[in-house]
Design goal:
heterodimer, A: Beta-Lactamase, Rossmann fold, 10 helices, globular, B: about 80% helix, elongated
Chain lengths: ~300, ~170
C-alpha cells in the first residue's frame, strides 16, 4: 500500500489519480508551506496538479496532514517526532522540517512544521542475490557486511533483500528496526515487507539496546541494523561480533575512503568487525554497486 | 359506581407514578452518564499514557462495558479510522448523540475533544486529570440536583395524584 493511502483528501485522491508510470516510479512526495506539493521520481520531478488539490500548501493544511498521519494521537509518536520523522505502516518514512524545542542539548519536541517529505519504502527482490553471489565468489560468505551510501541510494532496500535471502537460507536473523522502516511494522504480526522465514524484528528498539537484547534473548546468527551511528552503536556491534554473531548494517557515507577516515570505523574494518563493505550509488539508478571491499583486501 | 371510581383512582395513581418517574429520569440519566464518563476517563488514561494506543482504538477500548458510552465511543472510533474525519467535529457529534448530558456538561467534555491527541503523553495526562476533576464536579452537582429536584418533583406529582384520587372518592 502506498503512503498516500495514509493522507487525507484531496491529496490522497490526487496521488491515486497519477498516471501509472508516475506512481510506479514515485520516490518522494514533498509538502512545503506556501509551495505546491512536489513529486520526485526516478529521473523526474513535477508539481502535483489536480482539480481538487490547492495550488500551494497552507500552514493549517500541513497541521491537518500531520494530525491525520499520526492518527490524531501525537502522544504515540512524539519520540519519533523528536528525531524528525514518523514512520507509516509499510515502512514509508515521513521526514519533518520544523523548529526544534530544545531542553539543554535534547530535542524535546518540534513545532511550526514547515515541510513534510514522504519517502516511499519499496521492497525490491533481486539486488540482494547479486550481492550475495558476488561476496560468495570472494569467499566472504558470512553476513558481516556493511552497506555504505549517501541518502536515497538504496541502502535500506538492499538490506531488506539481503535479510530475506539469508533468512530463507535458514539463518536466524534479527532485525533491529528502530524506525520501523526495514520491516514496515504495521501492528502486532503485521509487516509491510517479506523478510524471510527465519527473521525476528525488534521494532522501535534503539540500535544498541536492540543488539544487546537480541544477543541475550533471541539467539541470532545475523543481526541486521539500518543506519548505524557511532559510539554505543559500534560498541554493540563489537559485542555482537565477539559473541559470534554476524552484523549486517548500513551506514551513511559517500565512499569507502570517507568511511575509513572516520576513527570509529577504522578498527571495525581493520579487525574483522565487518568482513565486507559495499558502496552504493544513486546513479544511474538507486542501488548501483560502485565499490566493493572485503577483509581479504587488508592482508 | 364505586367500582368505576376505584378503577379511575387506580388509573390516576398509575398515570401519576409514570409521570413522576418521567420527571425524575433526566436527573437519573445525567448522573449515570457522568458516572460512565468518570469511568471512561480513568480507563482512557493508561491506554494513552502507558500503552500509547492510537486514539481510535483507545476510545473504543475505554468505552467497553459502559451502557451509554460504549455505542457512542464505538462509532467515534470507527469515524476516526476514516482519514478524512476531523476529530473535533466527530467528538462534538458524539457528545450530541449521548443521552443525559445537560447544557453545562457539554462544554467541559467538548473542551476535552479539543486537546485529546494533540500533545505528548505527559500533557495528555494533565488534560485527562483536569477533565476527571471537572467531571467529578459535574457529577457532584448532578447528584445534588437529583436528590433535591429529582426527588421533589416525583413527590409533588405523586401528592397531586393522591389528592385527586381522594377528592374523586
Amino acid at each position: 500500500m502506498g503512503p498516500w493511502q495514509y493522507l487525507p483528501n484531496p491529496w490522497r485522491q490526487a496521488l491515486m489519480d497519477l498516471p501509472r508510470d508516475r506512481s510506479a516510479t514515485l520516490e518522494e512526495i514533498r509538502f512545503r508551506i506556501g509551495r505546491p506539493v512536489f513529486l520526485y521520481g526516478t529521473g523526474w520531478q513535477m508539481p502535483l496538479s489536480h482539480p481538487d488539490a490547492p495550488g500551494s500548501v497552507s500552514p493549517a493544511e500541513i497541521e491537518r496532514v500531520i494530525e491525520v498521519l499520526v492518527e490524531h494521537s501525537l502522544y504515540a509518536r512524539v519520540d519519533e517526532l523528536r528525531q524528525g520523522y514518523i514512520t507509516l505502516p509499510g515502512g514509508h518514512r515521513v521526514g519533518i522540517a520544523a523548529r526544534a524545542v530544545v531542553d539543554g542539548r535534547r530535542v524535546v519536541t518540534v513545532r511550526q512544521i514547515t515541510g513534510l517529505n514522504m519517502r516511499i519504502g519499496r521492497a525490491v527482490k533481486g539486488p540482494g542475490e547479486h550481492l550475495v553471489h558476488l561476496l560468495a565468489d570472494r569467499s566472504v560468505e558470512d553476513g558481516s557486511w556493511l552497506l555504505v551510501s549517501p541518502p536515497r541510494a538504496g541502502k535500506t532496500t538492499l538490506l531488506r533483500d539481503v535479510v530475506r535471502i539469508l533468512s530463507d537460507r535458514g539463518r536466524r536473523v534479527v532485525v533491529i528496526d528502530e524506525r520501523s522502516e526495514v520491516a514496515g511494522f504495521g501492528g502486532a504480526g503485521v509487516f509491510g515487507h517479506d523478510l524471510g522465514a527465519h527473521t525476528d524484528v525488534l521494532d522501535g528498539w534503539p540500535k544498541a539496546e536492540g543488539i544487546e537484547a537480541a544477543i541475550r534473548t533471541l539467539g541470532p546468527d545475523v543481526i541486521a541494523v539500518d543506519e548505524l551511528g557511532e559510539g554505543r552503536d559500534l560498541e554493540a556491534v563489537w559485542q555482537a561480533r565477539h559473541s559470534g554473531v554476524d552484523v549486517l548494517a548500513t551506514v551513511h557515507a559517500r565512499s569507502l575512503d570517507e568511511l575509513k577516515a572516520r576513527p570509529a570505523y577504522q578498527p571495525l574494518l581493520a579487525r574483522d568487525g565487518f568482513r565486507a563493505a559495499v558502496v552504493l550509488s544513486a546513479r544511474p539508478v538507486p542501488g548501483t554497486l560502485r565499490e566493493l571491499w572485503t577483509s581479504w583486501d587488508v592482508t | 359506581m364505586m367500582v368505576l371510581r376505584v378503577m379511575g383512582g387506580a388509573a390516576i395513581l398509575g398515570a401519576t407514578w409514570d409521570l413522576a418517574r418521567r420527571a425524575a429520569r433526566p436527573y437519573e440519566v445525567r448522573v449515570r452518564t457522568l458516572e460512565e464518563w468518570q469511568r471512561f476517563l480513568r480507563q482512557l488514561m493508561p491506554l494513552i499514557e502507558w500503552k500509547r494506543m492510537a486514539l481510535a482504538g483507545a476510545v473504543t477500548e475505554a468505552g467497553r462495558g459502559l451502557t451509554y458510552l460504549e455505542p457512542a465511543m464505538g462509532r467515534l472510533g470507527e469515524r476516526l479510522r476514516d482519514r478524512d474525519t476531523e476529530l473535533r467535529g466527530a467528538w462534538d457529534h458524539m457528545l450530541l448523540s449521548l443521552p443525559g448530558l445537560w447544557g453545562e456538561d457539554r462544554p467541559v467534555l467538548s473542551e476535552l475533544g479539543r486537546v485529546l491527541g494533540t500533545s505528548d503523553a505527559d500533557h495528555q495526562h494533565n488534560h485527562l486529570e483536569a477533565a476527571v476533576r471537572e467531571v467529578d464536579r459535574l457529577l457532584d452537582d448532578a447528584r445534588r440536583a437529583r436528590s433535591r429536584d429529582g426527588r421533589m418533583l416525583p413527590a409533588m406529582v405523586g401528592a397531586i395524584g393522591m389528592m385527586v384520587v381522594i377528592l374523586m372518592l
